[in-house]
Amino acid sequence: MPAKGATRVFVQALALLLAVVYLIPVYMTIVTSLKSPEEISHLQAWSLPASANWGSYSIAFRRFAPYLKNSFVLAAVATLLSASMGAINGYVMSKYPFPGSRVVMPLIVFGMFIPYQSVLVPLFQFLQKTRLYGGLPGLIVVHVVYGLPITTLLFRSFYAEIPDELLGAARIDGAGFAGIFRYLILPLSGPPFLVVGIWQFTQIWNEFLFAVTLARPDAQPITVALANLAGGQAVSWNLPMAGSVLAALPTVAIYVLLGRYFVRGLLAGALKG
Amino acid sequence: MHSRRDELLAVLVILPSIVLLAIFVYAFIGQSIKASVTDWGQRAALSLNPEIHYVGMQNYKDLFTGFLGMRFRQDLTSMIFFTALFVVVALAVGLGLATLVDHLVWGEAVLRTVFLFPMSLSFVVTGTIWRWLLQPRGGINQLPTVVGLPAGQFLWLSSREQRLAFDWAALPHYGCWMLAIALGALAWTNFRRARPGTARRQAVATAALLALAVSGVARRLAILDFPEMHGFNVAIWGVVIAAVWQQSGYTMALYLAGLRTIPDELREAARVDGASRFQIYRYVELPMLTPITVSAVVILGHIALKIFDLIFAMAGPDHAPTSVPAITMFLKTFRGNEFAVGSAIGVVLLVLVSLLIIPYVSTSFREGGDQ
Predict the structure, then answer these.
(1) Which residue in A127, A178, B120, B202 has its CB near the most CB atoms, within 10 A?
(2) Chain A contacts of B113, Cβ < 8 Å?
(3) B264: domain range?
């Protein structure tokens, strides 16, 4: 509901001011990443660089390339698997409820809220016993399994909106469980796959706890590499800032290009939203 | 109707997911609980067939009342303060932003994007950026110099100052007071709502608790042999600022979605009755947003209780003033190989998060049947 009269100017001005405040960290990150190490004197933190020094980006990129690749492989594979399994689960949960499914669903959903610290020690042990500890396959398994609650929940609420009459008609035409999924449900699943895919990719790309505890150095995702770089004392700040930009780029790009779907996942994750 | 064969097939395809979650969530929680009542740690941790003994609740006792649990107790205090501050500030800022954006004449899409985009970042990126901004001589403290003022001196993350200190040993005493106040308030509302029976029982309980607290009996029930002060570490403010920057857009999106679902007829009806714009906001719109506030408190609250990456990236795991239980769990388990103690901390976190999540999840699935 747009404001009227004098409040209109006030509202507009205040919102713009706040937007500037929210963008301060972005400005500082980019400005710092483009400065030369000598120029990052604390007394000129806010000034623009004398000349753009793209060197930090090439150093950061060379340093981060293997970890960026790890994150891409991890996020892409785990997203694909957990979304596919979530689609099948959501199909069953919404269209083929079985005895006990009303109890099973909240139990599944609870899994996305637990603090992972409460399963971390047995998980660590399990991965060691199955020889999955330390590598990307192990991390992929972990992200697929712990991604199942949210993907199942999201697909379930999408599929619940497909009218049952449509399924009935397909059944009369002779389609069974698999046929209905293949020829009726899947063709309607573009938007949900986009929402779930974006959500999972962002979550897995940004994840840190599993990454820092379950991966050996050569399999570490970008979040761990960035935390290690910024946590080291000797580095001058242009590098971590350039690294932050590189680490943020994929998810920010997804958000800017496909924001609508990103927000839908965000709201659906709040159960009632 | 579904054929028997299709019903069987449906159960068959969902079974692998259910089994995986049963193992990775519930069986692992069970194993954590089991590990937390043992002495599994240090040398025994790394051997193939470690010798592990059952020690009952000893690890929990040590964490809450033992000499070595001091760091954990401050962590827990910091976590509670962080959660309270983060949830309240993020809700207030989110509601403010949603109200502003809802009243915008132009530029709504752009501004909404600006406020929400930090949500797409990882806590590690947010933490790295704010670590730099909140350095003692970093961007935020230098901000006043841009307009010619002297630089700020505030130690955002490295301050060792502690406020609102309280004695951990006297927790039963404080607990008595708090319970008395809560029960007293309940008794008063029940009295006002003409439920004298309930009110009387609650009043008696309040009086008993007050007697315990005032007489000093509760104070003598000290849970430590020595006074031990804990409180709000001022350094937590830095973490709150970064967390609010990242998450307030989310609350804004929730509230904005809520504001948009309020039917215009309601506003129109209020306007016809002579309500001002502010009155419409205060008495029509805000009350309709209460369910969203509940959702937001639960979601933000459980994020705050688990907070780990942000603090790790902002201050590192070894910086005690900003530490929380999740950080100490990491250090104990993966640096100290104290698997039993690490499991115990994980279980404590699970209990705290469950208090918030279980009522929320179970009511969400009960309400409206299917959804």
Answers:
(1) B120
(2) 256, 259
(3) 37-161+234-366
